[in-house]
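Now for one record:
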Amino acid sequence: MRYTCRLLVVLTLLATTLALPVLAHHGWSSYDAEQVMRFDAALAEVRIRNPHAEVAVDHDGERWQVVLAPVARMTTRGLADDALVVGKTITIEGYPRLDGTRELRAERIVVDDKTIELR
């Protein structure tokens, strides 16, 4: 009985630990897929990291955070490693957050006249 109780505690802790990365990853339901935004903007910040690369741009007088795709996916789809640099103007197409936060989930970007599908 004592062994079973310890085993149950260990398995519960293991399951909880393994589930944390899944809980930390955001879902796409917080974005408005009915409202497509498309605009050109210069990159103010570039963050190449996992789980998704991100950029910040100024659009209509406000700073927008733009969630891109995983780095490996963008590379596979033809985006050069050095293509996203601060100051470069790109075209962004995506969906804004439902809660009004200035954040966009990008579906595609155009960099150096090349369209990169992100999803």
Remarks:
- Helices lie at 2-24, 71-76.
- Confidence is low (pLDDT under 50) at residues 18-25.
- Residues 2 and 8 are 10 Å apart (CA to CA).
- The first helix runs from residue 2 to 24.
